[in-house]
Amino acid sequence: MLKKLQTLLFEEKDNAPLVLFRMIFGFLIMAEAWGAIATGWVHRAFIEPQHTFPFMAFSWLEPLPGNGMYYYYGLMGLAGIFVMLGLFYRSSMGLYAIMWAGVYFMQKTSYNNHYYLLMLLNFMMVIVPANRYYSMDARRNPEIKSLTCPRWCLLIFAVQITIVYIYASVAKMYPDWIEAKPVHIWFEAKKHYFLVGPLLTKEWFQHLIAWGGIAFDLLIAPALIWKRTRKYAFFISIFFHLFNSAVFQVGIFPYLGIAFGIFFFPPDQIRRLFFRKKPVPELHTSPVVRPAGKLLMAVFLVYFLIQLYLPLRHWLYPGNVNWTEEGHRLSWHMMLRVKSGYAGIHVTDPETGETFKVKLSDYLTAKQQRSIATRPDMMYQFIQILKSDLANKGIKNPRIHVNSLVSLNGRNGQPLYDPLVDFSQVEWKPFRHSDWLVPLREDTESTGRSPTIPSRN
Question: Considering only CA atoms, which of 173, 97, 165 is closest in space to residue 130?
Fold first, then answer.
């Protein structure tokens, strides 16, 4: 059995899909980096805020001072071009992978599952030999030129995106999504769109999108695998992702989603379509698997087991994951809910007995204020920032209470944080439920409309 698996994974295949994906991927990561500068995202995420909210284990990560993050993203874009051209490929792809991981772990205000996926793909691309053909490296050093690659170089991308799609489908199988409540709120906000605006407001269309999202994510990978449906599934994938790009403006992910289809087609078909001058390779079906290859198999086995576990871990916590956020990240819970609200923070000086309300705009951008209101880990991090600032102002051992009102998928607002808890005494326990969260009252009326919770400091 193990020998058959080794043969399957290390059998030589035409490397045309990998080479084509490298070119597309390089262009897209360049567009992601330089687009972040051009659209002002770098300024909003790293330069404008006084404070950033890194992942807990990466609290030491901070943005570069001044205009440093512009140069940071500029360098990433240049690395993307080098990847596209296959020039100094390993170094360029490795540089982009490390730098992207840095900005991913550096801030959570603009957390996006697509950013997480891109981080995974970056490191996968570092490992695969995507520069062995049609690249500047192969032209500079003909000794590395090759027409083939081991099958695992193609399979890992197909397996990764299959995991993403299927877990995204399962995550949508909850009552609010089935009733199209999040879709209704999103589309009501987009009814002014040219041409498609009136269609977006139709109830039947909103339910079609909700159920279609479940069906697409669940079935697209199997349909691409099966030869009889592959071509039709690919065209459906193109339509689906272009619709998402036009309506939701979700960056490069729709185009990555389309590009993933490359790995489900026979490699020789990709060669005939895109590399007509590429010679037909001689394929050896009985590969010799070296010890390094066996180690690689073990590494990928552990990696994909982790990928299968992470989206399930929220079941270890009580409550609705869309409400508590516990186990929400790294789980392919993509565009599942509409959550908004505000939080008022009150501080009592134990020496004077004076109580005052914190003016959040003195510390946070408007987006960060919305984030701490709905994301418990970010609220905890802000409390630590606040405690440090209060200590510098001479207020020792303050009592801090949070009054919140949060709406999930159009429900009437309700507290997310326990107003009786002194948050100055709260400790963060990453693998345990936070008992200072108020459970979601599922029986609360949902209007199906965009929540109208006022913004407050």
Answer: 97
Which amino acid makes up residue 219? L
Q: Tell me the chain's radius of gyration from C-alpha atoms.
A: 25
Full pLDDT tens readout for the chain, 457 residues:
777 888 889 999 999 999 999 999 999 999 999 999 999 999 999 999 999 999 999 999 999 999 999 999 999 999 999 999 999 999 999 999 999 999 999 999 998 899 999 999 999 999 999 999 999 999 999 999 999 999 999 999 999 999 999 999 999 999 999 999 999 999 999 999 988 899 999 999 999 999 999 999 999 999 999 999 999 999 999 999 999 999 998 899 999 999 999 999 999 999 999 999 999 998 877 777 777 888 888 999 999 999 999 999 999 999 999 999 999 999 999 889 999 999 999 999 999 999 999 999 999 999 999 999 999 999 999 999 999 999 999 999 999 999 999 999 999 999 999 999 999 999 999 899 999 999 999 766 555 554 444 433 3
CA angle 302, 306, 310 (to 5 degrees): 175
Asked whether the beta carbons of 158 and 304 are under 8 A apart, the reply is: no
Q: Could you tell me which of 415, 356, 425 has the C-alpha nearest to residue 384?
A: 425
- Candidates 107, 168, 143, 150; CA nearest to 330 is 168
Residue type, 381: Q
- Quote the Cα angle for 71-75-79, to 5°: 170
Cα–Cα distance, 47 to 55 (Å, whole number): 18
Select from 306, 303, 308, 311 the least CA-distant residue to 331: 311
| Bridge partners (DSSP) listed for residue 414 | 406
Which residue intervals of 149-262 are DSSP H helices?
Answer: 152-172, 175-178, 181-188, 197-200, 203-225, 227-248, 253-259
Q: How many CB atoms lie within 10 A of CB 282?
A: 8
CB 277: neighbour CB atoms within 10 A?
Answer: 6
